[in-house]
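Structure ticket #2291
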Amino acid sequence: MKVGIIGLGFVGLSFASVLGSKNHSTLGFDSDKKKSSQIKNGKPPFYEPHLEETLNQALRKGLEITDNIATIVKSCQIIFVTVGTPQGNDGSINLSMVKSAVEEIGKHLKYSKNKPIIVIKSTVVPGTALDVLLPILVSKSRKKPGKDFGLITNPEFLRESMAISDTVNPHAIVLGGTKDRFMNAIKKFYENLHKNTPIIATNNQTAEMIKYTNNSFLATKISFINQISNICQLIPGANVEDVARTIGLDPRIGHLFLNAGPGYGGSCLPKDVAAIINFSNSLGINPLLLNAVKQVNDYQLKHVILTIKRAIGTLKKKRITVLGLAFKPDTDDIRDSVSIKLIQSLLKQGAKIIVHDPKAIENTKNIFKEKISYAESLDDALRKSQCCVIITPWKEYSKINERHLQLMEKRIIVDTRRILNNSKLKMNYYPIGIG
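Resolution: structure written out below.
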């Protein structure tokens, strides 16, 4: 069965690479020709652990990159749409890319005898597949859904820095659509691909809702433990690490996403929480809990800045080191990263900023240019620093030692991840979440 993937970003490229590496005949397309050329040469346009070797294996086995959507529509039995749905200013999602992709599929489907399964992996609010995308497909193709093509909603749950392993071993497969031969065919495809993975078959709207519910709940857990962290910080001797570790032992709660810090970021949680809030409002529902989740997350940045000011006083002309720019370790993704927002705030208050990150420096340069300084090593980042703020818990930051501190003008560390909490270093230490 030949598979086409339209959109070679984080989701699409990871999926295409895994399929190709498993000898599935796979055609990939992206409208960005520079990106496509890079991928053809075995170089992913972003960093993700194990992606490059998986991509190169795929290119040798089953993956081909094409510049023509028509080729995919005419020859592929399954067509996955994995383009982005970026966030608008009001929190709503922008459907322009997914609508454009579906329009192109419809245009070429009109002149094709192929009867493909069109699978929407892009994150879209409930009702999008049936109310927005299906009418486009019918209008452009002049074909009948359920007879000439199938439309399936198939949200993904990939974690950045874990995309390849999550693609190989997903915790669940969600399929939304009509119970017909197209649904049976996509179920069989996934059953062959993932022998022991639960497959949930439902309708399109429910499948779309599952994705938002999943991410909103994860965001809720993060905001919850951050709220507890802020309380712990005002109680002498209280430690949010012990609190989180203990409640995580309760099987009704679980230990994942209870890592208190500066707030959630990345390309999914902030966007998806904002989108479901916007969507709820459009239905006339005031999502009180989700609004609170977002408010707590927004406050965390202010809390970090207040902690910095408590540590060093006024920020004007202070030389502040920010360690970690990516929103999490093992990625170069700075979208909605707390570090970026922190730097913007510190600059407005007159601070001099030097930054370090093992992977995300180049992406950060695209934002700040010459407004801040970029360190190639931890030594350079800390030299003459008057305050160091640890944001992203890269492993190398846990190895800060006495020699590193001797490079600093003032030994002040604001640690939003508490990775130095058990060290015996001589420093003025401000760990978020510890009283």
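Closing remark: The first strand starts at residue 3 and ends at 6.
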